[in-house]
Automatic annotation (TrEMBL):
Any one GO molecular-function label of the UniProt entry: metal ion binding
Pfam families tied to this protein: FAA_hydrolase
Domain of life: Bacteria
Record keywords, A-Z: Metal-binding
Residue ranges occupied by any Fumarylacetoacetase-like C-terminal domain in the UniProt entry: 27-227
Name the record gives this protein: Fumarylacetoacetase
């Protein structure tokens, strides 16, 4: 292989509970995967097939700080289950989908809601509202051997100790195995791919100085300071 003409970028990675690192290839995010959240965003979840958008791998950030982003005055929190794949493929059968999962974690899909709203009205992509720097705070990943495949359990987020979001993983419209199978019909999934599995109702704005604390029962916790 020829030498690179510029220094090769560092491969983004998420820490694991044992002190290792999970290298990230792609980040897929499902939209409106909890019925109550779909309703609060003005949509009917019973009539909508799944849809996905993407964040960039280097948007994932395990520092514990979330820098309030530029060009926005309405930044929202969204707590989500993170699914980390150890393998992939195309047209993955439902009964084989979970075999591709390495583990799970807690993540936040931070959103410049004002910029996303403008993009929606103009029929434009969402990246300007979703895929900005450090827009996906993450906690350490836990392997399937430790947590299994969580399909129920409380998922919640507090801001400065006040409960903002609360739901249960069993309320997800599209389950993890369904998301993997569906995505594989359109993309070639591979080791290092990450899926953010959607957020329950209660999304709302944060301000500089706020502390967010996210919890998913059986998976882990994540504390993030807005700076």
């Amino acid at each position: 292989m020829p030498d690179h003409v510029i220094p090769a970028p560092e491969i983004p990675a998420i820490p694991t509970v044992d002190g290792a690192a999970f290298p990230v290839r792609r980040v897929y995010c499902i939209g409106r995967n909890f019925a109550a959240h779909a309703v609060e965003m003005g949509h009917d979840p019973n009539r909508e097939p799944p849809f996905f958008f993407q964040k960039n791998p280097d948007n994932l950030d395990a520092s514990g700080d979330f820098p309030y982003p530029a060009q926005s005055s309405d930044v929202h929190h969204e707590v989500e289950l993170l699914v980390a794949l150890k393998s992939g493929g195309t047209n993955i059968a439902l009964d084989q989908a979970l075999d591709h999962v390495w583990g799970y974690g807690v993540a936040l899909d931070m959103t410049r809601r004002d910029l996303q709203g403008v993009a929606k009205k103009m029929g434009r992509p969402w990246e300007i509202g979703k895929a900005f720097e450090r827009s996906a705070p993450v906690g350490p990943l836990r392997p399937v051997s430790e947590v299994g495949h969580p399909d129920q359990g409380r998922i919640s987020l507090t801001v400065n100790g006040e409960v903002r979001q609360e739901g249960d993983l069993n309320q997800m419209i599209w389950k993890v195995l369904e998301m993997i199978s569906y995505l594989s019909e359109y993309f070639a999934l591979a080791a290092g791919d990450v899926i953010l599995a959607g957020t329950p109702a209660g999304v709302g704005a944060v301000s500089r100085g706020d502390t967010m604390h996210a919890t998913i029962e059986g998976v882990g916790e994540l504390t993030v300071k807005v700076v």
